[in-house]
Amino acid sequence: KVVVRAHSRIESMVDRLPPRLEQFARSLIPTRECYESIAQQAKTYGCKAVPALAAALAGNSNATLRKVAARALGLVDSLDSLPLLTRAVREDPDSGVRNDATLALGWMTCPRATPALVDALTHDPEPYVRQNAADALRVLQDKRAFPALAAAVQA
Prior knowledge:
The chain has 155 residues and is mainly α.
């Protein structure tokens, strides 16, 4: 049953992928490794993968799939991914998804991610999400983050 459900979930996502990526995704077993492979392939296909990954991040009940979509959007490194990832950092109920969205924003090195990363640093209940937000903010070197980083060091 679990494999059937995972397969149907990936089928709906795969249907929206570029043809070569769709063929690749369909050739794999629908496991976590499959999802990770899709994330790696997303980097190759760039912005063409954003709509399908956005749908997976925003509208899927499977937290593993949302995590992989967040990572893939970070790898794609498209400004179109920024609002999707910032929403996931602030609103996703799964701490793993918030964490992976935080990592993805750090990979993008876009100063427009600073407010969401500061929110994660100062408000997320999970220490590992806060740590990854701090790491991403250090990479960004955005002066707007310095007060939050200083407060986190003192806490």
